[in-house]
Amino acid sequence: MQLLPRDFLSKVAREYELTALEEEAFVARFNSDITDQVLIKNLNITLSAFRTRMSNVYRKLGYSGGGPGKQHRVSYFLIDKHRKENPSIPVKINDEDIDKLVEEIHEKIKPGIQHMCGWMRVLDMNQPIELANIYTDVNILEKVSRTQNLEISDLMREFDPESKDFDRLGLSRKSVERVSGIELVKNCSKLMILGKPGSGKTTFLKHIANQCNNRKLFSNLVPVFISLRNFSDPGNSFSLLEYLIAWFEKFGIQDFEVDSLLQKNRILLLLDGLDEVNEERFKYTLRQVREFTDKNFENHFIITCRLGAQDYVFEKFTEVEISDFNDEQISSFVHNWFGYKGVAEKADRFLDKIQKNTPIKDLASNPLLLTLLCLVFEDRTDFPLNRAEIYEQGLSTLLRKWDASRDIERDWVYKELSAHRKEDLLSQIAIRSFGKSEYFFKEKVLENYIADYIINLPNGRNKRFVRESDLNSKGVLKAIEYQHGLFVERARGIYSFSHLTFQEYFTARAIIADGGSERFDELVNEIFHKRWREVFLLAVSMAQNADKIFSLMKQKIDAHLSIDQYVQGFLEWVEQKSATVKSPPPAHLVRVFYFTHGSSGHSPPVIQEGLNFDLDYDENLILILTLADLISQNFDQVDSFSLFKKRDQVRTKIMGCFQSLKNVLDRSIDSSPNAALKAKLQDLASDLPYAKDLQDWWYRDSKIWIEELRSALVEYRNIGHDWHFTDAQISALQKYYDANKTLMDCLNSDCYVSRSLRKRIQNTLFLPVAKSPH
After folding, report:
1. 625 CB contacts (<8 Å, ≥6 apart)?
2. Under a CB-based contact definition with an 8 Å cutoff, are residues 402 and 152 in contact?
3. Rounded to an integer, what distance in angstroms lies between the CA atom of residue 235 and that of residue 132?
4. pLDDT on residue 772
5. Does the pLDDT at position 398 exceed 70?
6. What's phi and psi for 496, nearest 5 deg?
7. N or C end: fewer C-beta atoms under 10 angstroms in the chain?
8. Are 739 and 765 in contact (CB under 8 A)?
9. How sure is the predictor about 606, in pLDDT bands with cuts at 50, 70 and 90?
10. pTM of structure
11. How far does CA 214 lie from the centroid of its chain?
12. Residue ranges of the alpha helices (H) in 718-754?
């Protein structure tokens, strides 16, 4: 405990009208650090008498009542009083005293911090959720994405929507390293955490407060959580220090105790939502934060702010960016969510669904939108069949609900656009950019897109807005970025939609809103480009009647192969072979099966196993050919590897394929519906060598063996034809298949299409043009 001068203590005793005996005990107690037992011996009084005198002292100084920390609180009060009366005399608080003060304050504020930061309730939750039960660790980008000096070509390097291995999440992939949020907080005393709307900034800050409150993080610090929006309220005239003192006062902590904490650098000040500060009070708030953090620089500070809203710098702060959720974090959050709700079994179903629906998974990387998806899935154990509905809910959350639910108003520039106009603006930008394969935009290009829309707005209340369109286009861009997070600055001066899904959605919205034949024709011209697949699915689900779009799609797909007579002959074989298979399944699915076998040598998993004997039997025979081709390809590679380890790996793969070939061949013999075919397959099986002789036999006799197998399949099952397609024909067939897949997926979506057209399309899928009337 800090010792104070006798004359100062005597002055205080007279000021508070202590009796002579009370003053004697008071001065003895706060002028020495001896124990009570030694002190009463020096005073020649009993312990009971000393305690009675001190109780009267505490009462007269305003510290009556029970509780263990009374002596220390009076000590802090006296130290503060002495410092104020004697500013030239340094008074130091020792570590033992400040540690005890931290302990006492922790106990006082713990319930309040838990009440303030221990719960979350967003969107349409019907009750709050305890944060500790669903919190998922976040990752931090140590370098803010917008500060990267990259070109569009750099960002496009791993983002090719037409490639076979296209990863749509590559749009948001950052090239900077991610680190644990908690680890970064531990190692950096002044942080400015930036992030998109709904990225989890406030949740992370509350988690830090909870961890400190429970002594799991910075156990020697006292956490303070302050909403800067509340601090900046026009009715508040406090400085940040006064506001902090008032915050502590709610917990019975006095100003001199707060001052002691600041002096000894024991405050962890968490300032949330700099972007939410009232515009009129912004400069005042900014000045207060700067002055306070500069004066008390050895304390710990964390400030959160949205990306795009921060055009100022706190010189001594490290700027970082909160990262999107990765697969592991999505899984953790989902399991936490449904486990907390008592329906843990839904978590795996949820994750399985988004794994198969990558556009929805794209949205799940944002914690706010992931929460929305969990709420939707919670009620129905599925996502809406109409995929546009879920995107509309996500956009409504970002455009309307998120700020409104927290009573936040933004600047006037963007308020001049209604929510509907904002969607129209985004739709115009999307259709123009997506049509030109633009996924990343130079800032000026995006501003021009915005200006082109603004200039055409009607007069009236938007007159000022239109007149200043050149200036406002930049303001609108920034507003879309930081208010809604729909645009993101991926590198310095380069933007994109925050999610490819949103660019696709707004592109489809623009097409349907226009509703003209010219716009539909433009859409259908893109049927053979993979990157347009999601736009087609969205457009047909948004259209009141999608007949026109479906008719145009079917015509375009059929015309793709119409001039190639050889390929038309292949489609005639598909029709003939499929006609020999009795239902089930539906005829168009049978044609898909044989089309895929004939054009690529293997069948997709579109037919349920065991549903039809002919399909199952043909699939086994096709598999024998496929395995034989695979063995040949691997034998061709063996000698190309210089490392023995690689050669052994390939030989192991070959033996696995050979054993599978023998097993499937045996099954086909046992189940053969044709005696002649069965005999031929038995002969072929008997010609196969022992495993140890496979390599020599394969080089010497495999080509003849494969040709005999193929001839038998053609003769007895009308499959296994070697079509000898050119590379151009293979490419055309692949595009034809992909386009038809998109067409079928659209038909199976939640769209409105007349029954007669639906039936006509299904009946003519994968047929020669002559058999596909329009």
Report:
1. 601, 706, 709, 710, 713, 720
2. no
3. 34
4. 59
5. yes
6. -155, 170
7. C
8. no
9. very low
10. 0.80
11. 28
12. 727-747
